C-alpha cells in the first residue's frame, strides 16, 4: 500500500496553478466587478484589464492583439478553426495525422460526416510518431490548386515527439496551403514567435503552463475571414460570444508572462530528470523501451515508454495508481468509461506494445523519480 504522498508525474495532462498566477487571478476576482461589454465605469475598467491581457499575450507570441480570441479551452479553439476552415474558407483537402489530439481527430471525423466532398488525408508517421514531411509534400503537390488545410501539432501530448513546424509552415507556404498547429504542449515551454513558424492558426490552453483550467486562445491570422462558432452578445469582436472570463484571462497572461523567467534553469533541471529517468528505466526495467533516445526531437517534459502488451498491463497501471504514482497509461476516461487512446491503438498496439507516459515539472525531484521507478519495477515485474 501507498507509503508516501502521491507522486504526480502527469504534468502533460495538466499543471497546478502557480501561486503568483493564482494571486493575480484572485485579485482580479476581488477588484473587478464589471462586465467588459458594459459601457459604465466598471465595465470600462474590466475592458481595460481584458485588452491589456490580450496585448501582453500577443506581444509574447509575436502576433497582433486583434489576431487573438479567448475561448473556453484549446478544444474549443481547435474545433472552431477546423470547422471554420471547411465551412468558411472552402477547405476541401484537410491533411493531418491520426496521432493528433482528439480535439482534432474527432472534429475531422465529424466534418467528414458533414461534408461529403471533404477529402481527409491522414499522414504517415515515422518511428517516433512525427508526421512524415516527404508524405506531406507529396500530398501537397497533388492538391496544389485546391483549398487545403494542414493541421499538425507542435509536440505530441502522448509521445512527446516534436514536429518541425517551421518546415511544415514553409511547405504550406510553397504550396499555398493554410497551416494550423496545435501548440498546446509547447506554449510556455519553448520560445514561440508565430511568424517564425508560418502558422495561419494556432491554439493554447492556460492549464498546461501553470495557469487556470478552462481558458484557451485561438490565433487566427489577420485577413483570414472566418465566422464564429458561438453566436450571441458579440463578444470577442463578434467572433466568440460569451462573457469573457477576465480573472482567468488575466491569469493566463500572467502565466505566460512568467514562463520565460528561469526557463533555462527549469529546462536544464527537467532535462536532467528526463535523462536520469532514461538511465533508471534501462537499469531497472529491461522489459520497457524508452521511445526517445535523446531530447533532440522530444519535448523535455514528456517521457514515453513502451511496455509489452500483456493482459496484466491494465491491472499494473491501476496498481501504480493505488500505490500513489500518478502517470498516464494511454487510457482516457470519457463519459465514465475508460478507453485506450487512439495513439495507443495506432502507434503502440500494432507493435505489440502499450504506452506509459511520465510527464515532468520543474518542481519534480529525483526522489520522486526514484519512488516512481521502484514502484513501476515492482508492479510491472511480472509483465517483463
Ligand atoms: N491539444 C493538446 C495537444 C492537448 O494536450 C490538450 C489537452 O490535453 C488539448 C489540445 C485540449 O486542451 P483543453 O484541455 O484546453 O481543451
Architecture overview:
There is one protein chain. The chain has 384 residues and is an alpha/beta fold. The chain has two domains: 7-16 and 262-379, Aspartate Aminotransferase, domain 1; 19-258, Type I PLP-dependent aspartate aminotransferase-like (Major domain) (Aspartate Aminotransferase, domain 2, 3-Layer(aba) Sandwich). The chain is 41% helix and 15% strand. The protein has helices at 19-31, 41-61, 74-87, 102-114, 133-142, 165-175, 194-197, 235-238, 246-258, 263-284, 313-322, 342-348, 366-380, and strands at residues 7-8, 68-71, 93-96, 119-122, 148-151, 178-182, 201-205, 216-220, 289-290, 302-308, 325-326, 331-334, 337-340, 353-359. The strands form four sheets. Strands 2-8-7-6-5-3-4 form a seven-stranded mixed beta sheet, with helices on both faces. Strands 9-10-14 form a three-stranded antiparallel beta sheet, covered by helices on one side. The mean pLDDT is 95. The protein binds pyridoxal-5'-phosphate. Pyridoxal-5'-phosphate binds at residues 73-75, 101, 103, 153, 157, 182, 184-185, 205, 216.
